[in-house]
Amino acid sequence: MEKKLGKFSFETELDSSRLIQAVEQSPETVVITDPEGCIEYVNPRFVELTGYSREEVLGENPRILKSGCHQKEFYQNLWQTISSGQKWSGEFLNLKKSGEKFWEQASITPIIDRQGEISSYVAVKKDISQRKQMERELLEKKDQLEEKEKMLNDILDLSTEAIRYVDLNYQIIKSNQRYKELNRLYKKDNLGEDFFFSQRRNCSNAFCTENCGTENCSLKQILAGREFIQEDTAVKLAGENHYFIVTIVPYRDHQGKLKGIIQSYRDITARKNYEKTLELSNQKINDLYSRLEAEFEKGRRLHQQFLPKKLPQIAKLDYQVYFQPANKLGGDFYNLIDTGKELLI
After folding, report:
1. If one looks up domain 14-127 in CATH, what number appears?
2. Quick check: 165 and 175 in contact, CB under 8 A?
3. Using one digit for the tens of pLDDT, what is the confidence trace for 181-207?
4. Domain made up of 162-267: CATH architecture
5. Would you give the distance in Å from CA 4 to the centre of its chain?
6. Which stretches make up the PAC domain (predicted)?
7. How far apart are CA 248 and CA 226, in angstroms?
8. Residues contacting residue 69 through CB under 8 Å, at least 6 positions apart
9. How far is CA 40 from CA 33, 56, 94, in A?
């Protein structure tokens, strides 16, 4: 019995020694306090991280590390949790002896003795300042990206052209406000109200070119190697025909890999309508010229009928006759020659 007890005592002392070494060499700070919160032990990592020596903190309250960045309710909740025998976990923004702030991920556990009373508290804390710095940088980059995206969206929405991005699965990933407006009109006119309220985003079911869904589809042409496409298309919107010049270019990532296509739609309906009006006006002018030319031709033939078929012979007078009808004038000019007996016109 004594041998067994001796062996048990030796193993217990060995385990305690190992435990002490583990705590002393831990890469995380370890702080042990009494039930009132006075510090009874700190490991070397605590000294290294905070800049306080053991002698400076023994008997002190851990509040010497307070940075003033946490609300009073934060500490009240912590104390209520551990004093009730429960484990508390959370993050501290603490203050080193030098005044430098640092973040710690902490776990504080109450130690219960054989009588069921709290004999001490053990806090194990990990320096997470670098992680927090990385999180801040990521948040800043995220904010910057969101700001750039908002700026891009604002710029796109200012454009009078409708713009959309379609991926390789024929899905509309992004579009500007002008495209959304045209797409609403297109769906109501061409696909009906039920489809308008559906969530489908396939490009063939939206405002697109006449070739969409065919072998001449823009995306298929880009996949086949084309780098630039420009074509005209006519679409019925709000019960009227509208005309657009559509420009299509490939969209690639920073490594040059094809990700989809970007399409822009420039509304040329006003220009097309003006061209039609101009064409009708030109046709009317051409018709008028044709009618006038026909009338002039009638006049020329009529004038020729007034000319003598045979010229008179006059002694001692040689003359030649030249006939040139007036060129689109409202009258004729004549030269008169008095021969004494008659007038030659």
Report:
1. 3.30.450.20
2. yes
3. 998 888 776 655 444 444 446 777 788
4. 2-Layer Sandwich (3.30)
5. 76
6. 88-140, 228-280
7. 10
8. 93, 101
9. 5, 11, 19
